[in-house]
Write a structure and sequence with these properties.
Length: about 170
C-alpha cells in the first residue's frame, strides 16, 4: 500500500480503490426543485392570463386556417377571415383584461404604495371604525357600571373614586 506526501495511506492502488470504484453511487434526482425567481401571480390575474393565452392561440389557429383556405380557393376562406377579425378583437380585449385585473388586484391588496392607493384608504377606514367601536364600547361599559354603596346599603350612595380623581380631591 502506498502513502502520499503527507504520510497518509493512499488507497488508489489496492483493493480499497477497486471497492470504492464499484460501490453504488447515490442516485441523482430526476426532478430538482429550484426556488422561484419571481413570486406567483395572484389567482384572478393568473386566470385572466390563461384565458388570454387560450383566446390568442385560437385566434392564431383561425388566422392560419383562413390563410390556407384563401390559398386553396375554398369557399370557407371568407367566413374564416371574418371570424379571425372578430377573434383578434376578442384577444385584444382579453389582453386588456389581464392588465386591468392586475392593476385592480395591486390596488386592492396594497401593493401600490401611493398616497392615493385605494388599499391604503380602506385600511384607514377600517382603523377608524375599530377605534370608534372601542370608544363606544368603553363609553357603554362606563354607563352600565353600577355605583357601589357604602356599608350595609342603608346609607346614602357614594360613587367609587378612581386613583386619578382621588389625587384631585
Amino acid at each position: 500500500m502506498a502513502t502520499n506526501r503527507c504520510g497518509q495511506r493512499d488507497e488508489r492502488d489496492g483493493y480499497d480503490a477497486w471497492e470504492r470504484q464499484h460501490e453504488p453511487r447515490p442516485r441523482r434526482e430526476l426532478w430538482v426543485e429550484e426556488p422561484a425567481r419571481r413570486r406567483r401571480l395572484p389567482d384572478p390575474v393568473r386566470t385572466a392570463a390563461v384565458r388570454a393565452v387560450l383566446i390568442a392561440s385560437l385566434t392564431l389557429i383561425q388566422a392560419t386556417v383562413a390563410f390556407l383556405c384563401t390559398l386553396a380557393g375554398s369557399w370557407l376562406a371568407f367566413p374564416m377571415v371574418l371570424s379571425s377579425v372578430a377573434s383578434t378583437v376578442v384577444a385584444t380585449w382579453a389582453a386588456a383584461d389581464v392588465w386591468v385585473t392586475r392593476q385592480v388586484w395591486k390596488q386592492r391588496h396594497g401593493v401600490v404604495s401611493m398616497p392615493s392607493s385605494t388599499a391604503r384608504e380602506l385600511r384607514r377606514e377600517r382603523r377608524r371604525a375599530r377605534q370608534a367601536a372601542r370608544v363606544e364600547a368603553r363609553e357603554a361599559h362606563q354607563a352600565v357600571r353600577i355605583p357601589q354603596r357604602a356599608g350595609n346599603g342603608t346609607g346614602p350612595q357614594r360613587e367609587r373614586r378612581s386613583a386619578s380623581s382621588l389625587s384631585r380631591a
